[in-house]
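Quick start: what a row looks like.
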Amino acid sequence: MEKSPAYFEHPGRAVEDERFSHMMAITLDPNTGYREGIIRCITSREGDVEIRGYIDRSQLFTVFGDSLEHFLVGERLQIKNETEILEKLTPEGWECIGLEDPDIWIDSETGLTHVYFTIPIKPPESKDKIRIHLGHAVGKDLHSLEMTEPVLLDDQTAVASAKEVSIAPLNSRGVRYNLIESRDREPEGVHSIVRIAIAEDMGKPWKYGDVVFHPAEHDISWIGGHASPGPLFSKDFIDVGEGKLLGVMNGREANQKVGDQIKYGMFSVGLFIYDYENGKIDWVSPEPFIQDSEAKTITFASQFIETGKGEGVLYAHVDDSFVRAYTLSAEKIKTLLPG
């Protein structure tokens, strides 16, 4: 893939800490001027991230920095009531392998800090499918969080799980059609898909909505296997029309069977246009937007911050191991859009 002129890849790693070999999924707190946030740190890894079946065990830690290009890892994120909630969600013999992939959202009306995260519950035997809930905690800031019941529970009947939330604006009906990564109805969970999560209250249970992007229904090779919604840009950064936002989509090429193993394809960052008023994806870029220069299999975006008119910093993790910062140019991104 040729490097796009629409972004600049910062050299080096955006987050450093000698305690962890693998760090990913950074999210930053606007209430601190994006100088503090949360990151997922891998405490143990079994298997290869390129081969289906690998297991990461994780913990969420705070991060802090004096610039948007460099952060250090602090202490483990403290969430009141975490143990009690996770015990209720974990059946006997199963294992919660740690909180994953956090997202911070600030309620402008109450000023409260909401954090959403993946809660994976691993079965004792492979014949059972892992349960993936979308967890939630709330507090006045990152240092006073309390866990609630998940906003979305893994629905075994509907074969629906929830992770990697992308928060949408309120529509004209006062509801948010947020986006989540979920799984399709195939017995083996062949694809990751994007579906709506209907939120009438950001701190109370949401509802599963329609599937809005299924890789098998589109002839787009870079996102032919798995799709996951990423950050949405504001209208101030790029305006794509009334009731719509441009965002980045994380997409993976189709799986390949190698012997008796399933090998994952390349994960890249692309663009999409989301009609948040009606809960529809209007367009997904025919080609990826970003593949990191060091990526062997994964470039996965988790956070975008506007830094000035027409400019911002996107954070992505590479091979589920380290975080990179990229500076984006709105004017140059516009040349990649339809029409």
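That is the whole record. Helices lie at 82-89, 330-334. The chain is about 5% helix and 50% strand.
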